[in-house]
Amino acid sequence: MAIKLTEMCKYYGRGASKVSALKEINLEITQGEIIAIMGPSGSGKSTLMNVIGFLDRPSAGIYEFNGKRVDGLNDNQLAALRNRHVGFVFQNFNLLPRYTALANVEVPLIYSGVPARKRHKIAAELLEVVGLKDRMNHKSNELSGGQKQRVAIARALANHPSLILADEPTGNLDTKSGKEIMKLFDTLNSIGVTVVLVTHDQEIADYARRVLYIRDGLIESDSGIRKQIQNQQWSTDKRQGKVNI
Amino acid sequence: MIIYDALIIAIRGLFANKLRSLLTMLGVIIGVGSVITLVSIGEGVRSHISGQIQGLGSNMVLVTPGKGTAGVTATSLGGAVSKLTFEDALAVEREAASVSNVAPVIESSANAEYEERRLTLVSGTTESYNEVRNADLASGRFISRGDVAAYKDVVVLGDLVKRELFGGASPIGKTVKVNNKPFKVIGTMKKKGYTLTINNDDRVFIPITVAEELFDTEQVSMIFVQARSPETVSNAVDETKRIITRRHKRRDFAVSEQKAILNTFQGIMGTLSGMLGGIAGVSLIVGGIGIMNIMLVTVTERTREIGIRKALGAKRRDIMIQFLMESVFISAFGGVIGIGVGLWGSRILTDIVPKLPTVISPWSIITAFSFALLVGLFFGIYPATKASRLDPIVALRYE
Ligand SMILES: Nc1ncnc2c1ncn2[C@@H]1O[C@H](COP(=O)(O)OP(=O)(O)OP(=O)(O)O)[C@@H](O)[C@H]1O
Ligand SMILES: [Mg+2]
Q1: CA distance B395 to chain A (A)
Q2: Is residue B392 less than 8 Å (CB to CB) from chain A?
Q3: CA-CA distance, B186 to B207, in Å (whole number)?
Q4: Model-level pTM?
């Protein structure tokens, strides 16, 4: 898994009401990283997550996934990429309310064509991993916030994604549950899954080995400078006087 | 995604809104039910009339005055001046090789009187009549060749006339006055019911020669000609035409086969059934619009669900199939219930109105059901397409 964004922009609306949610983002993410994205509200964090996760298309710039450009792909091709490679954990869970925890976890498996029996098995195992074995057959609207979040994580893991995108996964949780969720991400990361998460919580960000600050649609700072592209980024940032170490 | 999964998702969706799904289904139920019921009425009337036309007698050819083809009605219209006579009938019987029996009939209404008085239909005919018309006797005997030749004042009573004038008592040997002329009762007919508009039980038979005198006419209302076998019917038609034309020097009469009359009626009634079905079919289309309406509401309500599914990897086709399945399921399930309602409706109808015969045609069930499915599919396409085209981001943001 490798992601490379080059001068990627995202606009909303047009004319006078045009909003630049992201401006010339240059970013490279490699296999096995765990990245925290931080920044003030409205800075473009969720937008960036959506673009990375193939939910939204960049308005300009280049997005390469595993060396192949994805900005020209059609809806169905993007859907397949989301299904196979990405596990989303949304800020507001986005579970299907009338469905049981088990059925929710099965949804991505339906669209990857896994037969029913195998689906049940996989989903049950994942729910066990996130510690919800006894809540498997509860409707999702009967679960607590932390339990919902764990169902959402189990669902994100269903198709063995190489990339987990979690938008404020601990935002609605108390510190204890938040830490449990972070431990789970840590474990996943240790088996080679790339994790990108958005957070406002510095303590949560400390779990990540790389922290990205975003302001007004621009990457303000990037802590984990380990590669060439980041060096470029670093120097650009330094030139713009944005780096504050 | 396999169809089975889509079906399960669709059924769950429908069960989440049971009342609404049921109300939507109602349109289809009523549509399919009324198609089946209305067509069953049409088909019932058709088979009833066909039965009656067949009841005219087998291998039957009908000669009527005038040029009309649907000879049955020519006399009742009373338009043409009859040129047909008893002599014509005798000539056909004598000369036509493919003809086995000829029964001329002079018909007129007249009063029959015993103690009570009753206006009834008097038919002057010959001994061949009950042969040709499959008319069976209940008691006594029918008019004989001798009665006709000897101008005997004898009468055979139809079942209803007998019951009206004599009640349970046997009328044989009694004297009944027809238009004030005394006739001796020699027989009674079995109950036969209607042939088209004529009540076969509300009539009396007298020798044709006596009728000529009684009504002071030589005009024969119709001549029933019976061919020897089904194969010789067309020969019988040709010969009858030739013989009467030779005698009249022109074709001032109409000859029609039972089969031709039957075909005409079958055709008319077929069209009628089709029209009834068509009218009911319109209600199915209305039902379809109801489905579309509800599906559009459903798609809007479930925008978020669609967003979630798309975010998790559902392709356009997956969403499309899911919603199409819902609308097709509504129409299929409604169609099945509608078939039940239709069958029940046509049964109830005959129970309430016994004179309205209904015949369920499998054809109408198949057509109504497939049409319902098509309607569900057709009216489901637009909402399903709308759902499948939703942008995942926009859908996820929908409140
Ligand atoms: N669909 C949209 N139409 C118009 N503007 C949008 C849309 N989505 C996002 N924006 C704008 O883009 C900017 C970035 O939004 P985004 O949701 O990425 O912020 P965020 O960093 O996730 O904020 P928060 O921390 O509050 O979640 C905001 O100014 C927002 O108003
Ligand atoms: Mg956000």
Answers
A1: 11
A2: yes
A3: 12
A4: 0.74
